[in-house]
Amino acid sequence: MNKSFAEMLNHFDLGIDVAPYGNGHINDTYLVGVPGQFIVQRINKVVFPHPEYVMDNIMGVTEFLRKKIIEAGGNPDRETLTFIKTKDGKPYYIDENGDYFRVYKYVDNAVSYTVVEKPEQLYSAAKAFGKFQNMLADYPAHTLHETIVNFHNTKDRYRQFKEAVANDAAGRGKDVQDEIKFVLDREGDAGIVVDAIAEGKIPLRVTHNDTKLNNVLLDPVTGEGVCVIDLDTVMPGSLLYDYGDALRFGGSSGAEDEKDLSKIWFDVEKFESFTRGFIEELPSITDEELALLPFSIKLMTLECGLRFLADYLNGDVYFKTHYADHNLVRCRTQFKLVAEIEEKMDELNAMVKKIANR
Q: What does the alpha-carbon distance between residue 315 and residue 325 come to, in Å, rounded to a whole number?
């Protein structure tokens, strides 16, 4: 442990036993204490150029959640992240290199999964994300910083995509005309959610924006959700973003970069499990949001796929790739799912109505 890191720990009054922790790709993460009692993270300033905005959002949301959890008779130290302030009362420490460090309590006796092993896991994760949304339903979402501007503004994603097609920086456009057409044929979908928010048809809410299974801690005995974690992308938006992206990932039959498209389909059983858990914990969901749930899965999957394709056209400058056509493979899995969701849309809408009983 170098002198600078030890100095940072001293500002939080922590122990000195330190070990790298987790498998995240954004922030540097360490387990600190004897035994591990705290998580220390260096915030990635490339991804988040304003770490102070990130922490402002996180502190506001977690302190709001703590009050709600206490009112409900729960354990706030277990059911939401608890951040430790520096000795001088700040939510982060800036070292001599200008790096931002934060500390929160380690949640013990809880596990996370990176791969969906059974529908019950999706059900538990969905209940956790639904509860997260419901507890924050009356949070003033408009006061949150947009830490990644236009993150789920699909209209703007289309603008960027068409620029990538026009520029064709890597000279790959001629080989992916079918994929380009697939995206452009669906441009009419791009504004449905963002316009509904702007027009007040659906509420502006606090959104997590990274609703993968591994961002929910589960009880290893009961399998129930314990705590929603990784709050860096908490921003104002629509719960449709969280729901749709969760099933973009969790509803797929295979990996995001599966080359054999015959192994990729949209799993209705997983859809049913997640949707049931999400709605059960979210009485504040509006009829307008309910009606758009299945569409939101298509939208988030389409948005992700067009981003992969745009990066492929740009020469793989954003997403990490491990071989030449990695982004092309990724976009094709997403488009296969989009086509499947479109085919099953009537079935999915009927299932939502039955589950919601409205």
A: 10
